[in-house]
Design brief:
alpha/beta; single chain; Nucleotidyltransferase, domain 5; globular; five-stranded mixed sheet; 2 domains
Length: 340
């Protein structure tokens, strides 16, 4: 096996990554940007799921190097330490082609507003292909206020909890659709949505019977499936170690296993762990937090091109992303942009 040696600062790390063709590959994950079911009104507009694959002792050495370089008195380091301008050199080192994560890390991104549109169109029309067209039409032609109203109404329609809202989520959503139809007559996608109320009523009726095993609006579960798919390239079997997360119940882990099996992905199970016991989780947390912030900056037109260039090789081609401009910027090449 190839011996890889990283020399950074005052230490040297030598390890022998396997070729992944035999046995089970262990992948360690964490996320950033979780706002529960509040995807359109939360604190973040991007969800990021980071993953790394390396020995624990190697990850520990890299985490210590981050601490030695930043020299903060904080007991727990997070991505925001690395994102401070005064620590830019540490951030660039971490993401660089010769840095600790190169070839050993991956991040799956979800643009939350597009995810809401995608899930809404899938629920009401059963046609995910229409979601991208609707998303780009809405951003371009409906106007900021009307488009925001539509996204918020779609979010309320899909979320399990209605939080005592005076207007029912179904009524509110179709009132918003009707407003768009009056303002933009002749749009086929709006007519199709308006005719899909029976599906919306049936969905809300099912929720009254009890919360679903798999919440429609949570991007974490599909992100894990995409992550396993990425690392299983070449027929590898993947075992996931994930930072503790209440969302990951036994039933939901079983759903991930089922989705992987349907896609022919080798999945050897998922274990929950605490970051303080596993430095690999800290590295996954660093990557997820950094990617979320940089991708959000790109989405909103305020990105640093040099940092985006460093992030780009880590971004998964199956990331859920609707905005065309930032999609092209985050993708490593034209083929990746088409897939992203």
């Amino acid at each position: 096996m190839l011996v890889v040696t990283h020399r950074t600062g005052g230490f040297s790390v030598t390890w022998k990554p396997g070729d992944g063709a035999r046995g089970t590959l262990e992948v360690v994950c964490d996320e950033s940007g979780s706002d529960g079911e509040n995807l359109t009104g939360g604190n973040t507009d991007v969800f990021a799921h980071g993953s790394v694959s390396m020995p624990t002792e190697v990850a520990a050495a890299y985490v210590q190097e981050v601490r030695d370089r930043i020299r903060s008195p904080a007991t727990e380091y997070k991505a925001n330490h690395l994102l401070r301008e005064k620590h830019r050199d540490v951030l660039e080192w971490l993401l660089s082609p010769s840095g600790p994560l190169d070839g050993h890390a991956h991040v799956h991104l979800t643009e939350k507003a597009y995810f809401v549109v995608d899930r809404t169109v899938d629920l009401l029309l059963g046609d995910e292909a229409e979601a991208l067209a609707l998303y780009r039409l809405g951003r371009r032609e409906f106007g900021e206020e009307r488009w925001r109203d539509f996204l918020d109404a779609a979010n309320r329609l899909l979320r399990v909890r209605v939080n005592g809202e005076a207007e029912g989520p179904v009524d509110g959503f179709f009132r918003t659709v009707d407003d768009l139809r009056r303002a933009h007559p002749g749009r086929e996608i709006l007519e199709r949505l308006a005719a899909a109320r029976p599906r919306a009523d049936a969905y809300r009726a099912r929720l009254l019977e009890g919360p679903p095993v798999i919440p429609v609006l949570n991007p974490l579960l599909p992100a894990i499936v995409h992550t396993v798919a990425h690392w299983s390239t070449g027929g590898r079997t993947v075992r996931v170690v994930h930072d503790r997360q209440n969302m990951l119940t036994e039933q939901r882990i079983a759903w991930i296993e089922e989705q992987a099996a349907r896609a022919g992905i080798g999945f050897a199970g998922l274990e929950l762990a605490q970051a303080r016991w596993d430095p690999r989780i800290l590295l996954a947390d660093f990557l997820a937090g950094i990617a979320r912030k940089l991708a959000s900056d790109e989405l909103n037109g305020r990105a640093d091109p040099a940092l985006i260039a460093l992030l780009r090789p880590f971004v998964g081609t199956t990331s859920v992303w609707g905005d065309a401009r930032s999609r092209a910027s985050l993708a490593e090449n034209a083929e990746s942009a088409a897939a992203l």
